[in-house]
Design goal:
The complex is a heterodimer.
Chain A: H1 9-29, H2 32-57, H3 62-88, H4 113-126, H5 157-166, H6 168-175, H7 179-183, H8 189-217, H9 222-248, H10 266-275, E1 279-280, H11 284-289, H12 296-301, H13 310-324, E2 330-331, H14 333-346
Parallel strand pairs in A: 1-2
Helix pairs in contact in A: 1-10, 1-13, 2-3, 3-9, 5-6, 8-9, 9-14
Chain B: H1 8-25, H2 30-37, E1 46-52, E2 58-64, E3 77-84, E4 87-94, E5 105-111, H3 117-125, E6 131-134, E7 150-156, H4 160-173, E8 178-185, H5 194-203, E9 207-213, H6 214-217, H7 225-228, E10 236-240, H8 243-255, E11 262-265, E12 279-284, E13 289-294, H9 299-305, E14 323-333, E15 339-340, E16 346-348, E17 352-360
Parallel strand pairs in B: 7-8, 7-10, 8-9, 10-11, 12-17
Antiparallel strand pairs in B: 1-2, 1-6, 2-5, 3-4, 3-6, 12-13, 14-15, 14-16, 14-17
The chains are: A mainly alpha, B alpha/beta.
GO molecular function, one term (chain A): oxidoreductase activity, acting on paired donors, with oxidation of a pair of donors resulting in the reduction of molecular oxygen to two molecules of water
GO biological process, one term (chain A): lipid metabolic process
Protein name (chain A): Linoleoyl-CoA desaturase
Chain lengths: ~350, ~350
């Protein structure tokens, strides 16, 4: 699939200019209310974190355990998605607050921030959905595009997929090690080992905090705190997996060949981001809990614009798509997640060319 | 400030507790959570205690600094972070209070600069109770440990502020040596600290104060040196004020062969205007390389052309993998023409080109 199908070069340039104009307009309008938004979000997140952990100390009472676990789960989801992911995308760098800055932020998950910024901000966002370049297409373990050749071990894909969902933070952590490239000899073991050591240190501190120190602090209630933290991390893994897989793999999403992105213009880069990304419909709270990745299209067009602005940008992008006759992939969580899961199952078997979007 | 007076055992257990708390709040600090629970400390770590207007276009701020804030040396400055429309702007201000002051506060005085966003904000919009971000004191425009016998100070406008810190410190220590102070301002009404200086001189007979009102008397220059301070060449001299004055003094001291006896402190230099392919010079501080380039070449390209290989990613301004700290000068984002000219600005070197002389922390 190539993205030359939809627009001529001149049209793509014009499309790019319109998007540039939206970007510049939003950038110029950023101000105090945006700063207040992210600071409020961070306070809410930390408040939920403290509240959840405090309630878990009383976890011997079932309602306290349930409420504590729920609060901690939501805190961890907000921390990873609406706050961490977006801060590390440099969405809030314009504030020049060193405490809310992409270069200083570290998040509450197994993956070290510097590795994530490389694999995600650079590799994934620059080469979105380019098979063989964007490693988010299957994370090196799943066959997510019919363009990827089928191998017998792809038969186990439904199992790998379930494991990835449950252990998502560790999957993300190992992402930048790029094991398959090491095996292919494209990357040295020394490099991989250095990354693994950093991941080990980070995971060690995370494990110490959630599974040793906080449970020990609870004394006789060790197990209540331990189990609450375990469930919260698990819930966050499942949620992050769901949102992120719905970003690029629902039915209708395009993948691209490496050849098609050579000498790509800015307009075509925008077009590829649009064709390779999918939105999820939902209410305000849902958007926040998804880190506004429910506006995946807007996020991929403007990865460093503050997430609280994606909702107002979305209708403008959609209108632009209509004007240029371009698809704008959006749907309910059930539709997007259902078709994503179908893709995982279907591509565990050979073939699957019918999953490629039909060109109008 | 309180920390250096605590016994070692208390300090040790405090450190141990801090580490334990740090492991629980990793990757954040305990203070990040305390901020979320109790006070909204987002604006910064210092609180505006008092606001005064010594002259119509100047503002004197008394700032309560955080506990444990390092004690400054008289004459040093602090970098203040001020949030305006959600953006933190950083400016350096000399500390006008003495290090001996022990109420947990410092004083700074800022003059309104025409078109100056930060000074206008401090002068007009700031309210008591507001928070500002304050960094540790820095600078080597300070008094030496061993005081020379004769001191000469030459200041103009808000250039008096670091010297005010020095004089107040000498006063507090009760060791005021022979001092000559020349302080210039347009007129009496716009002279910062004029009355306090007069009172200081009246209290200490060994202090000679020359107040120069430039609107009536014209600018102070080196031709008047002998008149105000006989034997100026034998004095240790500190000067702070506009660039033209300092340049003149530096030349004069150099010619007299005593350049080392003159200490100067400059305000922020002006930024040159942007031009497309005009010549520019980039200094890469960490690799100690100076590179000539043009105003339409991204800093990243310049670095690579000259054998450096800074970390980077997309080369199109998306991934922020190349972000580097601007130390001085000005760069322009080639995508939209936006300029960055504040020390500490984090700039994407793959899309930013230099204007004039630029220093980058790379």
């Amino acid at each position: 699939m190539s993205h030359t199908h939809y627009l001529t070069d001149a049209q793509a340039d014009a499309f790019g200019r319109e998007l540039d104009a939206i970007r510049d307009e939003i950038k110029a309008s950023l101000g105090e209310s945006d700063a207040a938004y992210i600071r409020r979000m961070i306070r809410i997140q930390r408040g939920l974190d403290i509240g959840g952990r405090a309630l878990l100390f009383a976890g011997v009472l079932p309602p306290a355990w349930l409420a504590g676990t729920a609060m901690l789960s939501i805190a961890k989801i907000l921390e990873n998605m609406e706050v961490g992911h977006n801060v590390m995308h440099a969405q809030w760098d314009w504030m020049k607050d060193p405490k809310i800055h992409s270069t200083t932020w570290e998040w509450d998950t197994a993956c070290p921030s510097d590795q994530w910024k490389h694999s995600h901000n650079y590799m994934h966002h620059t080469y979105t959905n380019v098979v063989g370049m964007d490693r988010d297409v299957g994370y090196g373990i799943l066959r997510m595009s019919p363009q990827q050749p089928w191998r017998p071990w792809n038969l186990g894909q439904p199992v790998y997929n379930a494991l990835l969902a449950g252990l998502f933070q560790y999957g993300v952590a190992l992402h930048d090690v790029e094991f398959e490239r090491v095996l292919e000899g494209k990357k040295t073991w020394r490099d991989a080992w250095a990354r693994l050591k950093a991941i080990g240190r980070k995971t060690g501190r995370q494990t110490l905090k959630d599974y040793v120190l906080f449970p020990l602090l609870a004394g006789p209630f060790f197990l209540y705190v331990f189990s609450g933290n375990l469930v919260a991390n698990f819930v966050r893994n499942l949620w992050a997996y769901t949102i992120i897989f719905c970003g690029h793999f629902p039915s209708g999403s395009h993948t691209f060949s490496a050849a098609s992105v050579e000498n790509e213009s800015r307009g075509r880069w925008y077009l590829r981001q649009l064709l390779g990304s999918c939105n999820i419909k939902g209410g305000k709270v849902f958007h926040i809990l998804s880190g506004n990745l429910s506006h995946q299209i807007e996020h991929h067009l403007f990865p460093d614009l503050p997430s609280n602005r994606y909702a107002e940008i979305a209708p403008r992008v959609q209108a632009l798509c209509e004007q240029y006759g371009l698809p704008y992939n959006t749907g309910s969580l059930a539709r997007q997640f259902g078709t994503t899961t179908w893709r995982v199952l279907r591509l565990s078997l050979p073939g699957g060319q019918s999953l490629e979007p039909q060109l109008a | 400030m309180a920390d250096d007076r605590l016994p070692a055992a208390t300090l040790n257990s405090a450190r141990w507790l801090q580490r334990a708390a740090g492991a629980l709040t990793w990757p954040l600090n305990p203070s990040d959570y305390l901020g979320a629970l109790f006070a909204d400390t987002a604006g910064g770590n210092a609180v505006v205690e008092r606001i005064g207007h010594p002259t119509p276009d100047a503002v004197t701020l008394t700032l309560r600094v955080p506990r444990g804030f390092p004690r400054h040396r008289a004459g040093q400055f602090v970098r203040l972070g001020v949030d305006i429309d959600g953006v933190r702007h950083s400016r350096c201000y000399s500390i006008a209070s003495a290090p001996e002051r022990d109420d947990g506060c410092i004083e700074i005085t800022a003059k309104a600069i025409a078109g100056g966003r930060v000074s206008a904000h401090l002068n007009e919009l700031l309210r008591v109770g507001a928070r500002l971000q304050i960094d540790a004191p820095a600078g080597d425009f300070v008094l030496p440990e061993w005081l020379p016998e004769r001191l000469l100070f030459i200041t103009a406008g808000s250039g008096i502020t670091p010297v005010m810190g020095m004089l107040r410190s000498l006063d507090a220590r009760g060791t005021v040596p022979e001092v000559t102070l020349v302080h210039a301002a347009p007129d009496a009404a716009s002279m910062i600290y004029g009355d306090e200086l007069a009172a200081f001189a009246a209290r200490h007979p060994q202090v000679t104060l020359h107040r120069v009102y430039t609107r009536a008397q014209g600018r102070f220059d080196v031709s008047q040196l002998d008149a105000v301070c006989e034997g100026w060449a034998g004095c240790e001299t500190w000067a702070c004020g506009p660039d033209a004055l300092l340049q003149q003094l530096e030349d004069h001291w150099q010619q007299a062969g005593i350049g080392a006896r003159l200490h100067t402190e400059r305000f922020r230099p002006r930024v040159p205007q942007a031009g497309d392919a005009t010549a520019a010079r980039v200094q890469f501080l960490r690799s100690a390389r100076v590179v000539d380039g043009r105003g339409d070449q991204p800093v990243l390209d310049l670095a690579e052309l000259n054998g450096l290989s800074p970390a980077h990613g997309c080369r199109m301004g998306i991934c922020h993998g190349c972000t580097a700290t601007l130390k001085s000068g000005c760069v322009r984002d080639l995508r939209n023409g936006k300029t960055f000219d504040e020390e500490g600005d984090l700039v994407q070197i793959c899309v930013c080109a230099p204007i004039g002389d630029v220093e980058i922390d790379l």
